[in-house]
Amino acid sequence: MCYCFLVNFIIEGIAMKNIIITGCSQGIGKAIAQHLSPYYHIIAIDIVKPKHNDYAAFYACDLSDVSLLLQTINAITQKYQALYALINNAGTFVHVPLLEQELDKWNKILALNLTAPYLLSKACAPFLIKEHGHIINIASTRASMSESGTEPYSASKGGLVSLSHALSISLSGKVSVNTISPGWINTDEDYTPTAEEHAWHPSGRVGKPKDIAEVVAFLLERKDGFITGSDFVIDGGVSKKMVYP
Questions:
Q1: What CATH number has the domain spanning 17-240?
Q2: pTM for the complete prediction?
Q3: Which of the residues 39, 118, 153, 191 is marked catalytic?
Q4: 153 belongs to the catalytic site
């Protein structure tokens, strides 16, 4: 084992804690991995391998495929004896008129956005309990507000918020469970929001992936378990803005 490999696992002689992040190849998941990789041992799960290097181990998996997901979970739990955090970030969005929506697509979206976090949380719970760790689920403000044609996505994110507070009770005193509900986070690195789009936000700007990563880091620093069962809405104040026709 080379010295450079050891550096990835040890800071000042202290072993880095293991954290699973799903969907970290791009967008918010990528920002979370980049923000946390200097301090934690990142175990990445995604359908495609990240082009960045901000992780220590990678498992290729289509998280919407239950069979493949269970195999991946088994491989990880066989290798790692303890986990400090599970960050369920992987998800997919759909915007299709209601009458054109198909059941197969509905099932696919719920499998990825809701069933996968449930299965991962259930399987990882015994390992998270060992370190009085964290489950952080990345939901969406669409859990409580919608536009037309987003039924599968909104339903999955609403379910994820509810799943999180249920888990916080089942794992009470053992694992902290919270959700982060982003609003408009510009994950398109090739797009620059307009002045009007920035001005629409009470914060004065559109969100950045790093905004979410910083909240994740804040929650992971809380070691006494008091913050649990909460949903952190990070949307630049948009959901508090009164809008008239």
A1: 3.40.50.720
A2: 0.92
A3: 153
A4: yes
